[in-house]
Design brief:
The protein has 5 helices and no strands. It has about 160 residues and is mainly alpha-helical. Helix 2 packs antiparallel against helix 3. It starts with a helix and ends in a 17-residue tail after the last helix.
Amino acid sequence: QLVPRRLPRLGTRTPLIVGAALITGGMVWLTRLSPTSTYVADLLGPLLLFGVGAGTSFVALTMASLAGVRAEDSGAASGVLQAAGQVGGTLGLAILVTVFGTALRAAEQQAGGGVPLGPREILARAIAGAFAVGVVFAVATLLAALGAGRGDAPAPLAHPVEVA
């Protein structure tokens, strides 16, 4: 509820940039996973960054996308936004899984070719490769957020946000 309360004053651009920066930071941090990584030391921090960034940016993105939509069209606009999010998420996941599989096979071939890699090292390399592509997605999102709505004025809200 923190972001919706501040959107009328801040506008959508600042939360979009902050959220995208947090997501990017979390993704960069995840590329540093190694065979000796632990949850608390190496996963908790970046996952928290990613979660806070996603929560911050998704609320602002939804508000920006639906601003100015007539009340009678808000259901359809929201449906299109949700469908686009589902399709984009599915496509992004498919790309990351493909990268992971390719990196896994490459690491396995290295191990089979005499490079001393254990199963944990092979898995860590594949995961880091997938997260590296995730960084590219996150940086693209950050660049788009930086280019969005150049003004400092708050985005107009067609329907005031009610926060209980």
